Amino acid sequence: MxxxxxxxxxxxxxxxxxxGVVRAVDGLSFTLRKGETLGIVGESGSxxxxxxxxxxxxxxGTRAKVSGSVMLDGTDLLAIxxxxxxxxxxxxxxxxxxxxxxxxxxxxxxGKQLTEAIRVHEKVSRQAARATVVDMLGRVxxxxxxxxxxxxxxxFSGGMRQRAMIAMALINNPELLIADExxxxxxxxxxxxxxxxxxxxxxEFGSAIIMITHDLGVVAEIAxxxxxxxxxxxxxxxxxxxxxHQPDHPYTWGLLTSMPRLDRAKSERLxxxxxxxxxxxxxxxxxxxxxxxxxxxxxxxxxxxxxxELAESYPKHDSRCHIPVxxxxxxxxxxxxxxx
Length: 340
Ligand SMILES: Nc1ncnc2c1ncn2[C@@H]1O[C@H](COP(=O)(O)OP(=O)(O)OP(=O)(O)O)[C@@H](O)[C@H]1O
Ligand SMILES: [Mg+2]
Description:
By secondary structure, the chain is α/β, with parallel strands linked by helices. It contains 12 helices and 12 strands. The chain has helices spanning 48-55, 82-88, 110-121, 126-139, 145-148, 158-170, 188-205, 216-222, 240-245, 250-257, 266-269, 325-336, and strands at residues 6-17, 20-32, 37-41, 65-72, 75-76, 93-96, 176-180, 208-212, 225-230, 233-239, 311-314, 317-319. The strands form 2 sheets. The chain has an 8-stranded mixed β-sheet, with helices on both faces. Strands 2-1-4-5 form a 4-stranded antiparallel β-sheet, with helices on one face. Bound molecules: adenosine-5'-triphosphate and magnesium ion. It is found in: Cell membrane.
């Protein structure tokens, strides 16, 4: 087995604010091999975007306190200088941002920005770069790409801007692609097209992909491993088939039972996990999920006092829960599986 291409160790991102320290990401560790996809899921505010920005080095120069290490192909992305990191961005690692406006410069045409993105890394003529860009704009589903090339970001609709940004991230065939909710603003056909493009990237260049999404259907389709985040921590981390066949954390059960199913009436489908996400300033004592968990009576230790560790429940399948593993399996089989 090859060494992991990406290895995050004890990654933490804390924001000092007037109200206290926001522990947005708090001790995350994960690995990713070339050619593989890690899906990261978790509800709004669980720390997914903050994690990706940390890998990209985009908390630099802000008040955020980032600690831990993120090794990419032997280089600690958190320790290198700004200049070296800038050189790596684009080709070694690239990101599709959740907010498409943040990624494009308003003063330059879309075509110029994409062309320059190529020419930073490669000595190619403007014409050759233009041809590559027009081709890529077409591949992400932008109609009339050669006309669109000369337009400014504000002339693009939200969906078109999202596609242009995806083109920007893919244009240099990055070895690591972080895709933060890349398809939420897009219609189903284009979504499928984008997922196909990512698969092509992976097949042709052996790229590693981090796929952040609310959509467990997308995870099932594209991920090799899945990390479920809750309140800035991983609560479950497993290979994708194991996660769907033997989900092991009550929060994951909540996500799975709230997943839309085509064979159910619409009104029946949407059952969000009951309760609200935790405060990241005053994280609940014990297990951060305990105020929303229906199973705390089964914990081997008091769930509202002791913080559970992320521990191996099954081979290559970790979770963070005080309920004994066999009992969890029983609860899942009896109470959750029949609802899926
Ligand atoms: N600059 C900042 N200062 C203070 N708190 C922040 C900052 N950026 C993010 N946060 C907080 O960190 C937490 C995690 O945010 P993040 O954007 O990573 O969530 P997310 O999992 O990506 O959610 P979503 O699914 O809505 O995109 C949130 O509570 C957010 O308010
Ligand atoms: Mg986000």
